[in-house]
Structure formats: structure tokens, C-alpha cells
Amino acid sequence: MGDEALQQDVLDELGEDRIQELAGELGTDADGATRMVRETVTALPDELTREASAAPAGAAGLGGLGGGLGGGLMSGVLGKITGPVAEAVAKRTGLPVAQVSRALELLLPVVMTTIAKRRARKR
To answer: How far apart are CA 20 and CA 107, in angstroms?
Structure first.
């Protein structure tokens, strides 16, 4: 999904300090980390990102994300998407898959938090 507003919300949620942390994890600079964040949001499954902009119905394929995720369910969802997302982001950015995977461990919880906040604002 190329939701630029969601990309910007995630970047805002991260802030400069965590962008620098991601850059360090990736072995790149802040611009490279920002690109990785944007590509990650783009690579996420529609069922996940749709939660940020649609009615609560869209998440059935992700275990009912619309109702909120407990820690175990969240881990399961993130575990299922990390590999494919890491490969897609690595392909688009030229960054090594292993580094992208490690960075996703930091980034995906922030993305999920951002989506939850956007959903709460729409209620």
C-alpha cells in the first residue's frame, strides 16, 4: 500500500533518535533509514495497512487485528510478515536482508502502534 500519510505518521512516531538507531542497525544514514521506513510501509500487507484507513472489517486475515492485538497475537502476526517484508524492502533498497530483518524488529512495533493510534482517532 503506498499510503504516504501512514508513512509520515510512522516517521513522526519514530522521531529523529529512532531513525538514527535504525540507520545504525542498517549501516546507513538517516536518509537511508527513512527510505527503509517508507518502503516497509509500502511492503506491508493490505490487510494490515487497511486498518489505518478503513472500517474495522479488514483484518480478519490477521486474527482480528481490528479488535486490538495482545502480545502473543501481535508476535504471531509480526512473525508471519517479517520475512516477506524484509525481502521486499531489501530488494527495493539494496540493503542486506539480514540487516533489514533486524531493523524490522525495531520498526514493526512502531508501525503497529501508529496504525492503532490512527484507528483510535477515526472512532
So the answer is: 12
CA 104 to chain centre: 7
Helix, strand, coil share (%) of the chain residues, nearest 5: 85, 0, 15
In the chain, DSSP finds a helix count (H) and a strand count (E) of 5, 0
* Sign of the CA dihedral running 108, 114, 120, 122: negative
The rounded radius of gyration (Å) of the Cα atoms in the chain is 14
Top-confidence residue, 78 or 3: 3
- Cα separation, 123 vs 86, in Å, equals 32
Rounded to two decimals, the pTM is 0.76
